[in-house]
Design goal:
This protein is of the alpha+beta class. It has one domain: 3-Layer(aba) Sandwich (Glutaredoxin). It contains five helices and four strands, in the order αβαβαββαα. Strands 2-1-3-4 form a four-stranded mixed sheet. It comes from Chlorella ohadii. GO terms for molecular function: 2 iron, 2 sulfur cluster binding; disulfide oxidoreductase activity; metal ion binding.
């Protein structure tokens, strides 16, 4: 893998909620990324975004790291949660709220 796996793990672990998206949280550049940003904003939790459009190596490296072929990719407490569809499901079921609460209170 081109990117250092340890550096990715360290970044994901250092930040409780991370969304690798197309664009930024201020200007998501695809509908799926916008959906993730809107859900996280609605939840009112602190989170960081990483714009995968800025770096081809990052984009391909994250696909390999997560074994997930598309973006966005959301991590909570160092664990891969999934993309927009999974986030919508877990938000609707209340599971995301529980996951975020546990992560932010740990």
């Amino acid at each position: 893998m081109v990117l250092c796996r340890a550096a990715i793990e360290e970044f994901i672990t250092a930040n409780k909620v991370v969304a690798f998206i197309k664009g930024t949280k201020q200007f998501p550049q695809c509908g799926f990324s916008n959906t993730v940003v809107q859900i996280l904003n609605t939840m009112g939790v602190p989170y960081v975004t990483v714009n995968v459009l800025e770096d081809d190596l990052l984009r391909s490296g994250m696909k390999e790291f997560s074994q997930w072929p598309t973006f966005p990719q959301v991590y909570v407490a160092g664990e891969f949660v999934g993309g927009a569809d999974i986030l919508i499901q877990s938000y609707t079921s209340g599971e995301l709220s529980e996951m975020l609460e546990a992560a932010l209170n740990s």
